[in-house]
Design goal:
221 residues; 4 helices; alpha+beta; globular; L,D-transpeptidase catalytic domain-like; 13 strands
């Protein structure tokens, strides 16, 4: 039995264009991603102090002490305080402010990060479209990658076994939502913050999402 209190301490033309070579296509994609990264990253960005989004200072990335015994590399999401912790090998954790899903779509549990993507595309699930058609129906065919995409600049895909849960830890084009319950089940981060986290997270690690109600107890295993 694990509770929130004991798990941590402190992306038809008339004439066809020539087919691009794989190397050209890869180079073009990398260039586009780099341009988008520059677009969403403030000048002089420093993770601990840069805050053009007006976030509460506690939601900026910081190093904290981690409870002994936690597995380095794993992620823990405190849904009450709106924190994501990435456990380090030296007894500390990097803590980031997040937004979590509204009541219902947010699903506490233990997940495996099976996939990572830079500037992912996004398609709302049928249940999202059914629940809020006025928001999601227009994206039923998908949304192209870019700074306005709902998944932002990076996404970590949460699985149970081989099953994609459609839950993500991802960037957001709505950074002022950080610290709230605003998403449709996923965990949102400011784009420069998840860009930093993304490079540190390995596929195969475990993500623990804790309940959003004070005093709740979740059983994992």
């Amino acid at each position: 039995m694990v509770t929130r209190r004991n798990f941590i301490v402190t992306a038809a033309a008339l004439f066809s264009s020539p087919i691009a070579s794989p190397s050209f296509a890869s180079s073009h994609l990398q260039g586009q991603c780099a341009a988008w990264d520059a677009q969403v990253t403030p000048a002089g960005y420093d993770a601990a102090t840069t805050n053009p989004w007006g976030l509460h200072p506690r939601l900026l990335p910081t190093v904290v002490e981690a409870r002994a015994g936690l597995v380095p590399g794993d992620i823990h999401v405190d849904a009450i305080a709106r924190y994501l912790y990435h456990i380090q090998s030296n007894g500390t954790a990097m803590r980031y402010g997040v937004a979590i899903g509204r009541d219902g779509p947010y699903e506490p549990g233990v997940y495996t990060i099976r996939r990572k993507a830079k500037w992912p595309s996004w398609t709302p699930t049928p249940s999202m479209i059914e629940r809020e058609p006025e928001i999601y129906a227009k994206y039923a065919e998908g949304m192209d990658p870019g700074p306005a995409n709902a998944l932002g600049s990076r996404a970590l895909y949460l699985f149970v076994g081989d099953r994609d849960t459609y839950l993500r830890i991802h960037g957001t084009p709505l950074p002022r939502s950080i610290g709230s319950r605003a998403s449709s089940g996923c965990v949102r981060m400011v784009m420069p913050h998840i860009n930093d986290l993304f490079d540190q997270v390995e596929t195969g690690v475990t993500a623990h999402l804790y309940p959003a109600e004070e005093g709740s107890v979740a059983t994992f295993g």
